[in-house]
Amino acid sequence: MDRLALCVAGNDPHWLKEFADQAAPVFRRRDVAMDDVCQVLEGLRAASRGVLSAEELVPADLALDEAVKVYRWYRRLSGDARKKNPILDKLYKGI
After folding, report:
1. If both were cysteines, with which of 2, 8, 16, 29 could 63 make a disulfide (CB 3.0 to 4.6 Å apart)?
2. pLDDT tens digits for range 17-54
């Protein structure tokens, strides 16, 4: 929320985009799916519509779009696009 406020105040999506880029590896280590993080950002977008004015929504939407784009890129790298077969996953690991 603080990063989104900085983006709205400065009319620059840099703050939230950089936060997403730095937080994605932490989420990956904790086995959080990037789709879930994108859903949280979409919830933040919906909640911000009730608080921000029309001219403040433009930089907020731009910042949230940039953050979602970063998380979707990390989703591609991590293989979140499809669920893995647990049996094949165990065989691949050699268990």
Report:
1. 16
2. 999 999 998 988 888 888 899 999 999 999 999 999 99
H/E element, 54: helix 54-78
Q: What is the pLDDT of residues 49-88, one digit of tens each?
A: 999 999 999 999 999 999 999 999 888 775 565 666 677 6
Specify the 3-state DSSP secondary structure of 70.
helix
C-alpha span between 66 and 6 (Å, rounded): 14
Structure tokens belonging to residue 69: 């784009």
- The first and second tokens of residue 64, run together, are 């949230």
With beta carbons less than 8 A apart as the criterion, state whether 42 and 72 touch: no
List of residues 6+ apart from 81 with CB closer than 8 A: 75
- The label of the residue with tokens 């921000």 reads 52
This prediction's pTM: 0.78
